[in-house]
Design a protein that fits this description.
By secondary structure, this protein is an alpha/beta fold. Helices cover 33% and strands 21% of the residues. The protein has a 7-stranded parallel sheet, with helices on both faces. Strand 6, helix 8 and strand 7 form a beta-alpha-beta unit.
């Protein structure tokens, strides 16, 4: 791994969430609101070999690197360290966003990013977990270890696809989200790539 000259650390945001919850759409929405004076880079972890998410995200000029073939918390973990260092060295960004595979354990990904040598290069910021409220209120999902891990580790819980939910489902979602422990810094909704509110207070 390469060494770096002394420089201020880059802020890190991490996106997790089950497959199909809309992580890429949510991240794309956040990208569209970024401060034009900030330089961002994105790392996308694709479980398969085809970089669909990376292709979707790379169309607005922000550098995107893809890590394919496995999850960041296991088989692709070593590659993440190399990729993160290369992105930081080449782009010197203000902010690095990571979209983890839907199968990744978010806590393990954060542990990797806090380990040396990345700990001195990154300032860990908000962890986002994107959920479909209809799944969130389903006990079958709530009992799954991976789902618990992704929700438990996040600072910001993002409800996607809210336009597909009934008012009753959204009310149940917010009721359950308010009772989570540890409590979340923010619970936000997004639909059809709708903008987040108060971005700077959570990123």
């Amino acid at each position: 791994l390469h060494s770096f000259p002394t420089r201020r650390s880059s802020d890190l945001g991490n996106f997790s969430g089950f497959l199909g919850t809309g992580k890429t759409t949510a991240l794309k929405s956040l990208m569209e609101q970024k401060d034009p004076n900030e330089k961002w880079v994105i790392i996308v972890n694709e479980f398969g070999e085809i970089g669909i998410d990376g292709a979707v995200l790379s169309d607005n000029g922000i550098p995107v690197a893809e890590i394919a073939g496995g999850c960041l918390c296991c088989t692709a973990g070593p590659q993440m360290g190399v990729t993160v260092q290369k992105m930081l060295r080449d782009a010197k960004p203000d902010r690095l966003m990571i979209e983890a595979s839907g199968l990744a354990h978010a806590a393990s990904v954060i542990d990797e990013l806090k380990a040396k040598p990345l700990d001195s290069l990154l300032e860990i910021g908000a962890v986002f977990t994107v959920v479909d409220p209809r799944q969130f209120i389903n006990p079958d999902y709530a009992q799954q270890a991976l789902y618990k891990d992704q929700i438990g580790i996040c600072d910001v819980l993002v409800a996607s696809k809210t336009d597909l939910c009934t008012p009753e489902q959204l009310a149940e979602f917010h009721d359950k989200a308010a009772k989570l422990f540890p409590p979340k810094a923010k619970v936000v909704e997004v639909q059809n790539a709708q903008n987040y509110q108060d971005r700077k207070s959570v990123v």
